[in-house]
Structures are given as structure tokens and as C-alpha cells.
Amino acid sequence: MNAHLxxxxxxxxxxxxxxxxxxxxxSLPTPPTTPDANAGFRPMESTPAPGVDADEPRPMxxxxxxxxxxxxxxxxxxTIEGLSVDERGMLHVPLAGDVQVAGLPLVEAxxxxxxxxxxxxSTVRVTIVMSDPAGHVASVIGAVGEQGRVVIAPGxxxxxxxxxxxGPASTSDGGTTTLLADLQSARLVRGGEAMPIDxxxxxxxxxxxxxxxxxxxxxxxxxxxxxxxxVLGEVNGARVLPFQPGIRLSQALAxxxxxxxxxxxxxxxxxxxGPDEAMIYRAGIDHVVSGHYADPxxxxxxxxxxxxxxxxxxxxxxxxxxxxxxxxxxxxxxxxTAIVTSGGP
Length: 345
Hints:
Elements: H1 7-21, E1 67-73, E2 77-84, E3 90-93, E4 97-100, H2 106-117, E5 125-132, E6 137-142, E7 148-151, H3 158-164, E8 170-173, E9 176-179, E10 187-190, E11 193-194, H4 199-202, E12 218-221, E13 228-233, E14 239-242, H5 249-255, E15 263-272, E16 279-283, H6 285-290, E17 303-308, H7 311-325, H8 329-341
Parallel strand pairs: 6-12, 13-17
Antiparallel strand pairs: 1-2, 1-5, 3-4, 6-7, 8-9, 10-11, 10-12, 13-14, 15-16, 15-17
């Protein structure tokens, strides 16, 4: 699995590398058992969405793309099949011509068609039968099982829409399922504006957030970007992991395939915080296993770097990475990724 580092991760990673070369190996503190035990740690915060107070069900209406049949009754009964509402919202009706029907409930659309036809048949009555609700669709893209357009069934809500798209994307590794979607950052866009709902709450069934889906709605589910944990260095499978609340150092290392034979298990760096105020800790998985101190809980955005037991390897690594770091953050992100995923110089 390729470890695609975000730009901030590259800056923080450079900080880790520089910390090796400044002789501060022995002076770094051990990580707190939980991130909030450090007074300088500020967890990622987001403003909760308020939800929707009133979300009443609506009658079936016509939308561009819908295919209908018209049953017209006067002296005789005639049925006209296969009429489509065009992208202008018009339905082309024999005799009446183009009739604007988009957005109208079926009863109102029937009345409007009757008005157009009564210039020719004064007693006509019209019944609309929905043949194919192809205009009743919502789009779902992003980190879901199957992106695309979903036909909206009557009564469909946000949780149903997400389920119809295959649910949030996830991956399974060794019997552990990891969520790859950031549901808290997901957005339901309607009429060009984001609805004030939280999709993570919506899937719990809360009706203030699990609102009805309307034709034309657009659900975007981003991948996990806010809460990533990067595990680099002397591990068997360097990677970027989606953050899971409560994940500990030993678990992150295990998900990265464990440390290599060349790893220094007593010299594991954890970089926490933004590039301007990064906190760097030194941990030892050997000490965790022996019970000398607790297995530390990781925080969103942490970078875990496992050092090598040989200083010659470190000097070689610095020689290889120095030109990459000199070209800036973007180049560093690309270059560090290349080195990590290729197994190092």
C-alpha cells in the first residue's frame, strides 16, 4: 500500500529527521498515555451541524428525466406512453404542446395539462402514470462503495442513500475493518448549498440529520484526511492509516506490518501537532511490551517514525533525503513517499 503523505506530514517528517541530526535523541520526552494528558495538545475541533428542525415528506413530483404515460379521458379513453420531461422541465403533450411540469406534484401537473388541452377538448380529464422515475435521482461520490447516481425511492433518507451507494468505503486487513471515509466531513448539497446536517449522526437514525433525500441532491463523502496516522521508517509496510479513536502505538505498528529486524525498538519518534508547534516524543515499543510504561494512545495527524539500529543507515538516509527536502513541501511529500514505499535507499 502506497503511503501518500499530506503536505503537513512532509513538513513534520522533516522535523523528525532534523531532530535526529541535532543530537537530541536522549532529551526527548516519552509520550503521554493519552494525547489530552499533555497541556500543550489541542485536539482537532469542528463545529457541529445543527440539523434540520422541519423536514416533512413531499408528494411525488415530476422532474427532468422522468418518463410518464398520460391517460386522457373525454368521449373516449386514450393512453399515450413514453413521454419524457425534458431538461427544461417541459412535457410535450399532443395538442397542448410543451407544458411546464418540472417540480409540480402529479395532481398539479395533471391540472396544468388539462388547461392546455381544453382549448381543443373542453371535457378532458388527464391522469399521469409514472413509468420510469429516471429524474428522481441523487448523486453520491467520494469514499463510498460505489459512486454514481441513485434512484430515489419514496421515503428515502440520507442513511438509505449512503447504503444504496455501498456504504462508506472501508478496508479489511487481518480481520480488522478500517473506515476510509470521513463521515463527519461529508456534505449533502441541495440547490447549491450544503444542508446543515452531520452525516455521521444521520446514519444513527437521528431525524434532524437523517433528512429526506430530494431529486438533484448531491452527497459527497471525502476520504479520511483530517485524521491520518503515518507510520514510517523501519516497518514492514510503511503506510498512512485512517485515525481510529483509541488506537495505540502498538496497534499502529502492527497495522504497518510490525518493525523490521533492523529497527531500533527503543527509538520510535512520535510527532504531534502542526508544523509550527510540533511536539516530538521518543517511545520504545520494547518498553511497552515489558510493561515499563503504558502503550500510548495516538492522536489524529500523528507521525510515527521507527529508527534504525545502525547510524550508518541513518547517515545514508539523510544523504538521500536532503536534496528532496530542499525543494519544498510539495517535493518533500512526493520524495518521502517514494523513499518510504521503495523500502529506503
